[in-house]
Design brief:
GO terms for molecular function: acetyl-CoA carboxylase activity; ATP binding; carboxyl- or carbamoyltransferase activity; zinc ion binding. The chain is an alpha/beta fold and about 290 residues long. Helices cover about 35% and strands about 20% of the residues. The protein has helices spanning about 1-5, 35-40, 60-65, 90-105, 135-155, 170-190, 205-210, 230-240, 250-255, 265-285, and strands at about 25, 35, 70-75, 110-115, 120-125, 155-165, 195-205, 215-220, 225, 260. Bound molecules: zinc ion.
Amino acid sequence: MALFRSKKYFKVGLDEKRREEDVLWLKCKACGQLVFKKRVEQNRNICPKCGEYFFLTARERIKLLVDAGSFEDISRPISAKDPLRFVGAKPYTQSLKEAQEETGLLNEIIVGSATIEDAPVILAVMDFRFIGGSMGSVMGEQICHGIRTAARLRRPFILVSATGGARMQEGILSLMQMAKTASARWLLEEARVPFLSVMTYPTTAGVEASIASLGDVAIAERGALIGFAGPRVIKETINQELPADFQTDRFALKHGIVDQVVRREGLREEIARILRFFVSSRNSGGRNGR
Ligand SMILES: [Zn+2]
């Protein structure tokens, strides 16, 4: 998938052999200017020269969204197995090991509890650096763990997606996570707990076609790519020209896939506003957070 080779939202200008912490300057892909890394980080990973969004890791995304010091990692201590002994361009076990070393993460998703402007939430955040943020058995289980915890504690559940879809290295087991997460979502319904789905660049394929599209409120971060198959495959299948804005945030909004498009600068405040709405409707005897 071309998406996996795209460097658009990665920190560019990195010599792969150098450690990321040693890099002081980043080159913006949009405006081509060199920008001081610290300044970019202080600016929510937005280019201070042109406003382009740099790619966010899961930890950076969490830091951006939650109240300082409130985050507690509650991810289950599990990691992917290789039941199919899959070998693609390289063995799956090797891809996993490299992804773990590169990201410092055990998995492609972090589940945690935190507060956002003092509202307690459970959130699950994907990391695209880890094998394209693809959903295998572990991500499916971590999302369900987050959902179960949110339902039990009656806290809103927030899913932040950055994913290329199902993890082909796990074959049918990865596709089964679509059904597993989609059915777990019902627990939130039963507990009358709101579910906010935040789609970032990119939210595609098996994740977009399951849990990411099942939020009570669906938000696209400005610049998000949202879709199922790639445009070339669709174009060849239906044999028609596609609109210029196909699979963009604006297209998703126009066609009702998301409820709103929010700039990264205002994302935390917008989520807090939505959370307050659910809390006040619950307190005023509304449909208990629905
Ligand atoms: Zn720029």
